[in-house]
Design brief:
With about 280 residues, the chain is mainly α. The chain is built from eight helices and two strands. Strand 1 and strand 2 form a beta hairpin. The longest helix is centred in the C-terminal third of the chain and has 32 residues. It is elongated, with a radius of gyration of 43 Å.
Length: about 280
């Protein structure tokens, strides 16, 4: 069939022709062919050569740690000059001395003589308290007193004070200090035998010792703080102050209870049973 051309209006504008479509993109180039020499040069997967090559690549990717040199500029923060942390000068300053037979501690660092002396004084306080508690325990264990509950309580307190002294001595040694044990005064052996106030007298003496011990710990903290020894400050706050505060509270409650009992011998006997 032959179609006749559509009539056009003489006054109509010409119809614009569409642009030709873009040419298709060229096909991607074929992958390069592996030659026999390339395949032979690559180690087989899973073999020793392959694992060694992989290990070498991983090692090469890691950046080797760089040690700062002495010529590098220091960092100033808030007016304080900080040298590079691992510079040659910093490492040299921390090396042990060439002569190791001079008796000096190699672990001592930032530990002043004042803090060392204060720790030795605290050891003496703890040992003195332990001796006094031991004397109390043996007093109440006598057959003429016969208060086994108080004897066991004060023996427990004596052991705790000795453990505290050993704990401080261990810390002293760890910091590179020398433990120097001072003389101890002889504790009393009598606490009012023959009357019912011996338990109260011993409890009041125990409260006085615990308060003195707490005061000495606070003084040790002040000495460490003035010396800039944050390690000793942290040690006193974290390991010593809280148990000592609890001991003061326990001794104060015992004194208050025995004050209420007064001269009542039966009341003291009943209080002693509550401690057993």
């Amino acid at each position: 069939l032959v179609t006749a051309p559509r009539p056009t209006c003489p006054n109509s504008p010409p119809v614009p022709s569409l642009p030709p479509p873009p040419p298709p993109p060229p096909p991607p180039p074929p992958p390069p062919k592996r030659t026999m020499s390339t395949a032979a040069a690559r180690p087989a997967v899973g073999g020793k050569a392959h694992r060694a090559a992989a290990a070498a690549r991983r090692t090469s990717r890691r950046a080797a740690p760089r040690r700062a040199t002495q010529d590098e500029a220091a960092v100033v923060i808030s007016g304080i000059e900080f040298a590079p942390p691992f510079s040659d000068a910093a490492i040299t300053s921390m090396r042990p001395p060439k002569e190791l037979d001079n008796g000096a501690s190699l672990s001592r660092h930032g530990f002043s003589d004042a803090v060392e002396a204060a720790l030795n004084a605290q050891v003496n306080v703890e040992m003195s308290a332990s001796m006094n508690y031991l004397a109390m325990s043996n007093y109440f264990a006598r057959d003429s007193v016969a208060l086994p509950g108080l004897a066991a309580h004060f023996r427990k307190e004596s052991n705790e004070e000795r453990e505290h002294a050993e704990q401080v001595m261990e810390y002293q040694t760890e910091r590179g200090g020398k433990v120097i044990l001072g003389p101890l005064a002889a504790p009393p052996s009598e606490f009012g035998e023959g009357n019912n106030k011996d338990a109260l007298n011993a409890a009041e003496l125990a409260l006085s010792m615990e308060k003195l011990n707490l005061t000495k710990l606070l003084q040790l903290h002040v000495v460490a703080d003035e010396a800039g020894d944050c390690q000793t400050c942290d040690y006193v706050e974290g390991d010593l102050l809280q148990p000592q505060r609890a001991s003061v509270d326990e001794a104060a409650r015992m004194v208050r209870t025995l004050h209420r009992i007064g001269d009542n011998g039966h009341g003291v006997w009943d209080f002693d049973r509550s401690l057993a």
